Amino acid sequence: MLWLVLRTLIGHWRRRPFQAISLLIGLAVATALFAGVQALNAEARASYDRAESLLGADLFDEITARGGRPIALDDYIALRRAGWRVSPVIEGTILVDGRAVTLIGIDPLTLPPAAVGAGLVQGADGLTSFLAPPWQLFASPATVAALAEANLPPLTVAEAMPANTLLADIAYAADRLARADEITRLVVAPTQKPDLPAIDAVTDGRLVLTPPTGQSDLGSLTDSFHLNLTAFGLLSFVVGLFIVNATVGLAFEQRRPLLRTLRALGVSERRLSAALLIELLLLATLGGVIGIVLGYVMAAALLPDVAASLGGLYGAPVPGTLSLSPLWWLGGLAISLAGALLAAASSFWKARQLSILAPVGATAWLGAEARRLALQRWLGAAALVVGLVLWRTNPGLVGGFVLLAGVLIGAALLLPSLLSFVLARLASRQSDPVRAWFWADTRAQLGGLSLALMALFLALSVNIGVGTMVDGFRKTFLGWLDQRLAAELYVGGTDEAEAEEITAWLTAREDVSAVLPIWNIDLRHEGFPLEVFGIADHPTYRENWPVLGALSTPWDRLFSGEATLLSEQFARRFDLVPGEIITIQAPDGDWALEIAGIYADYGNTEGQMLVALPALLDRWPEVEKTRFAVRTIPDRAEVIAAELTDALSLGDRQVVDQTALKALSRRIFETTFAVTVALNALTLAVAGLALFTSLLALSAERLPQLAPAWAMGLPRRLLGRWELQRTLALALFTALAAIPLGQLTAWILTAVINVEAFGWRLPLYAFPLDWARLSLLALVAAALASALPAWRLMRLPPARLLRLFSDDR
Amino acid sequence: MLELRGIRKSYGEVSVLDDINLDLAAGAALALTGESGSGKSTLLHLIAALDSADAGEIRISGRDVHTLDEPGRADLRRTQLSLVFQQFNLIPTIRVAENIAFQARLAGRHDAAWDAEIARRLGIGDLLARYPEEISGGQAQRVAIARALAARPPLLLADEPTGNLDEATGDAVLALMLELVRETQTALLFVTHSPRLAAMIGPRRHLTAGRLDRTA
Fold it and tell me: Which residue of B has its CA nearest to A258?
């Protein structure tokens, strides 16, 4: 009997193919965007984990040198002699065919066997080829493919390798990286002899032991990036579910008489509910499978940009190709099923409450509509309040997203009431009865279109908000780049001898006004990475540096050697303000500096501080002295670069002019936001689709409402045109309402979420031209969405309208 | 077959049915007449277990409707009775042939030869492949009657089934219905406000303001 009932229910979709397509699109889109984003996140996180587990950083203690320096060979030998079981690792970046690749050198004989890297080497053909020339390198399949033609020792494919990374014997790595006496870190074996001397005692406090962290460093660093992606995935998921909810709700209303007939013919409530549930699960499975395939395609298309962003921003090795486990596919399907059940819950509840005898009167429907609007108003207000309260009580990144979600959902729930109010006012102000009917009838369509309009409203608001944030960021970033990259040329020597040669060549020229060192030391301040730059006293900094807030005469204070300037994100992270004292760890003890000012340092995930160059050299005399900024007459920069490269036979990357560096920075900026912009555009497209499918689904319902107007003398062509105008009017009002919400969204993104996620706050701009462009886009989407139903109405045979008019069914 | 004892039903303060007593034997036909609002449809809904009486007892084939839970009521509708409505209530998503067979399949009494026989007798044999929206109102009503009879129910409840048809078509449909219920020994309770149709059926009870009078 269940099968018979199910077949009868499914017949509904055969009779209304557009509605079926609409439902499948909703399910597929919701699943695709959510599963696609999950795929991107999963791929990146799997890559971080591979990077961590390669040397067992997730399992074993590590020893590094204080002050961010390499470990001296003598210290390593001292530890070994003292009985410590430690394994040396050398890590650095090499250029292979113009591509920067991470090279990791290990000693497979001492690396703990539980580290993935040790397992790789032990499991290969034999240690001999790994330990001796011509050497053997391990790399991921994609890296091996990319470096197939490179002049490297034989490459062996290893699935467990992180992207863009080569694993080699420590002797090869030391030679290739020119670090014979330097070790990057030591991996500590899990079992050690009893009564070992303390590390501090053996190495005079030069080394520090760090226990393994629960989460990878890259995982923590990139959390904000992934949370951002997840938020967009969720937004698109919600918009997709709006379509599902609208379609399932409409199908329920259309099938209400059928459900009553089935009950009257003896189908029990339980059996009918079971049949409805099976029908939904079948459709959700079909939509989910389509969605998973689309999600995979989308993720594969976006992954190269995501990989470039993560690599550029965090140095994270993420492959450019997807490789997903069966769990991801099952997870996507589960999301589709859960989403469908969520979206259909209200219709199920109504089906269970269905009275066999209740009439479907227009008055009853109007009453229900008014009750629904009132409920939505309450829910909307509640969402706003909950979002605000949760943010105030938990003002972190998650709190920021909760605030954003509360504001967006709350505003979306309030939209139908707002539109209803506006349309009622318009209808009541018309003296012409036909015009009054037009507005009243437009208002009557709100019930069927409200979900699609809410989806459009959300998509437009988020587009305005994110667009304002990205454009505002671009504007700020470009201005900031002009200040930060004030020098005309940036040069680097491969070693200090070459750097001295370059400096001598440059200072001998009359058209070079200054050669400014860019020397820095990498530290960790309370576990957070920190770059300490020593700068020379020169007007370049005083005149151009983008200082946000400072004490009086900050540069004089800084160049006295007693003060520092901090990057904004570093200051925010540790809640530091000008006038306070910061203490950092120097080789000869703590170094206390007065904070003279805070400056903007967009795009940098690490903390940064400026100190006077002599003060830096006093404490870190061994700082790498290879990089310089060169001040010259702007017109001469290109000539100087060419002559310098030629005179000292420098490589392409050793001399970079300001224009190229700015172009590179801009490219990194655009890549970073490429995924956001793509998801943004997809969300808008989905909202347009929601409007289209809702209008198409409703078009059949509209005919009985329009037939009396036709019978009273309004031509089909005019009725069709009005249908178009109705949708345009609703889209326009929605777009107008989206502008203030979009601006509020931009404020939350720049003043709350960005500050929490990245540590910098951007000024809030308004871009009225963008508002106009998006409003126009909404109108075009609405016109396209309503074109087909309107065209069908214009071409409807009069006999059909006559039948609808005379038919009281 | 059908026994009603002391049935009462009110909606709020308004009494719709008051002390209704009625008996209908297997194979018997009875016309139930009354003005609009006299409670005819309410009585039919109570008998069909679509609604519950405030007081009294309804027995169909010996089963007390009042004691049945929701699945029991659904089973009663499926196996013991069929309904024919004024609004046809055909299932739009399936073809005419499947509509006719629908309740019989639900009741587990489907007989394809019997379906074909009923369709032929009701003059809808050439409409079987069509969907309900592709046939006229008169044809749709005959399909609804065919669906009800195809299930071979012990009791057939008809609520103004010819109300949407012209007089000649209505008479023809009723004549066929009577012929078929006689052959199948189905008890028929036929609600109508037309004295002419009631006369065609024979025995008749009249409802006035919720009370039942014997009029013929």
Answer: B91
